[in-house]
Amino acid sequence: MRHLMSPMDFTVEELEELMDLANDIENNRDKYSEICKGKKLATCFYEPSTRTRLSFEAAMINLGGQVLGFASADSSSAAKGESVSDTIRVISCYADICAMRHPKEGAPLVASKKSLIPVINAGDGGHEHPTQTLTDLLTIRSLNGKIGNMTIGLCGDLKFGRTVHSLINALVRYEGIKFILISPKELRVPDYIREDVLEKNNIPYQEVERLEDAMPSLDILYMTRVQQERFFNEEEYLRMKGFYILDEDKMKLAKMDMLVLHPLPRVNEISVEVDEDPRAAYFKQAQYGVYIRMALILTLLGLNKK
Fold first, then answer.
1. Contact call for residues 197 and 167 (beta carbons, < 8 A)
2. Alpha-carbon torsion (281, 72, 83, 1), positive or negative
3. 223 and 246 in contact (C-beta within 8 Å)?
4. In the β-sheet with 66-70, what is the strand arrangement from edge to edge?
5. Nearest Cα to Cα of residue 19 among 121, 123, 141
6. What DSSP state is assigned to residue 161?
7. Residue 173 CB-half CA count within 13 A
8. Active site amino acids
9. Residues 121-179: pLDDT tens digits?
10. Is-contact 8 170, C-beta < 8 A?
């Protein structure tokens, strides 16, 4: 039995196989429409989510399976004080696979140690968001034709943004990757990412504060929102949230084939006028999220025979 806690749980070769399967699903939906008939996915979401939870549910339904679960801690026995370990032991009796989101870092890992079914980390605090990273990689490969030999700008909340942390960890294994880290000083990537991931792997990177300075060099721009729930006080959040806004004027500085990604939801960091730009790929990215989660479910259930 295998779990997914981090994108590092899969080798680059396994990631390529997973993305190949996702592309096959994209092009042959009917072929996979009944493959999970009789299987159940439990979505255990202790923290609010729209895209991640619904894309997991859509993925399982598209495969012919069923979904059960809860959408917040208040609607589960966690409100009564039940531990994650006890919850997953019970869920293991009801479902074949589980997707778990939790505000505490490491909670899905704790669950995986006690689980009788595969557990997928659907986001744990500010730590990891591996299925978003799989979505990002599939989007880049599908729209750009390859992963590697590119300059990627990560913009916004790089301190608390778990999607950024997971993506950096995954991309450093590909050749020719360079990063431009675009953030205010208060929201720079944590030291452990800078030292243990980037510098340890000799990955070229630079840190800048102005988005305009980075735009001409980028092949991929990965925007993130400033997350209110990760701040300790509202005053600090209000001061930082409007620091970066991508608009038409900034897009004029970019390459004609640059892709704009965003894990969503956005607040005001991407102007709606950018939505019509052919380089805006964030809604396509959401669709790729369903395909990669379908492929992941099949892989962890051992049903990934093309």
1. no
2. negative
3. yes
4. 66-70, 40-45, 97-102, 119-124
5. 141
6. -
7. 15
8. 51-52, 80, 101, 129
9. 998 876 778 999 999 999 999 999 999 999 999 999 898 888 898 899 999 999 999 99
10. yes
Sheet holding 177-182, edge to edge: 205-208, 177-182, 150-155, 220-223, 259-261
Going by the DSSP 8-state scheme, the letter that residue 79 receives in this structure is G
Residue in 306, 305, 295 with CA at minimum distance from that of residue 142: 295
Host H or E run for residue 15 = helix 12-27
Please report the pLDDT score of residue 105 as a whole number: 87
Task: Please state whether the peptide bond connecting residue 265 to the residue before it is cis, i.e. omega within 30 degrees of 0.
Answer: yes
Q: Which residues pair with 212 in a beta bridge?
A: none
Q: For residue 69, what are the contacts with CB-CB under 8 A and spacing of at least 6? A: 41, 42, 43, 44, 45, 99
Identify the three-state secondary structure at position 66: strand
Mean pLDDT of all residues belonging to the chain: 91
Location of structure tokens 């990215």: 285
Q: Which helix (H) or strand (E) holds 179?
A: strand 177-182
pTM metric for this prediction: 0.91
Return the DSSP state at 215: G
- Reading the block at residue 202, the tokens are 């000799």
CA–CA separation, 204 vs 201, rounded Å?
9
